[in-house]
Specification:
Layout (H helix, E strand, L loop, with lengths): L2 H27 L2 E7 H11 L3 E7 L12 H8 L3 E4 L8 H8 L4 E4 L25 H4 L12 H4 L13 H18 L4 H26 L6 E4 L6 H7 L2 E3 L12 H13 L1 E8 L4 H11 L3 E5 L13 H16 L27
InterPro entries: AdhesinB (IPR006129), Bact_metal-bind_prot9 (IPR050492), Lipoprotein_PsaA-like (IPR006128), ZnuA-like (IPR006127)
Family: Belongs to the bacterial solute-binding protein 9 family.
Organism: Vreelandella glaciei
Amino acid sequence: MSLTLLSSRSSRWLVGVSAMLALPAAMANERVQVVTSFSILADMVENVGGDHVDVTSLVAADGDAHVYSPSPGDARSLANADLVVFNGLLFEGWMERLISASDYSGALVTATDGIEARAFAEHEEHDDHGHDEHDHEEHGHDDHGHDDHADDHAGHDHGNQDPHAWQDMHQAGVYVANIRDGLVAADADNADAYRANAEQYLQEMAEVDAEIRALIDEIPASTSVITGHDSFGYFSSAYGVNFLSPVGLSTEADPSGASMAALVDVIEQENVKALFHENMTNQSIITQLAEETGLPIAGTLYADALAAEGEASTYLGMMRHNAQVLHDALAEPGHDDHDHDHDHDHDHDHDDHGHSH
């Protein structure tokens, strides 16, 4: 066989291999490039978008979106995006500045559009705890007189509305509907896939929601929970667990000595049986409370960020994990008379919010 023939065959082989190697890159370039503000939204987009999206989360797993400082690379990510998804309700105080700096002019999805937002004004009602009736609609989850933290909400530019709506899985269904509609608008060719994925995801969310309710039902209604930062209001309203926080909304603040002493008094007055760390807050605060009160630290809850690995590395896994940790620490076997005044009709019919499937 001549060298010329070998050379010709080799050249064709190399061209063929190069073309095959180029296929994944070409296919990847056809995917919708989505940038999300933080990890929980990234997981939701991946579930709805499936193989048709590439997702970049500005704030990574275990990252704190409250204190995040965008980088020049983040601006470049936005500039190259087809779709940007963020929470809204002033959760990401830095997002508007980043969008402006990146010159991004594409589509924006505000995940909280259409939700029933909780008002932080509930925290002003300090005198009447009312835990026997478990009335969280009136009292919220941090209404125990932590005046030192009254300005924490303003310090984070959250305004008067609680932005942590994903902690109620019914509200999270609205997130999914908004994400679905944003992807359909950005990539109409794959609209059917986005709708089917969203429908499947909503069904999975309904199943996890039912699991959470079954677990929380075994926790006495009078039980209060101590966490490191004030982000479980929607969980409290939806599932009927009263949350107290030594820091208020801020993940930066260190409570004063007087505030810590007041919290110890509250722990003694309320039916607090355990303390919980959070994955992205200063754990020394809860550790100090445990030392001063003798209460156990019963585990880690995930509020504003997914875990980097493990069960809580997905949104559904995070919600299931939180409920299981609370149950394991606080449930009383055979207890099934937990008074859920907040038992919504969670049929995930998001047409009520102006979204059509």
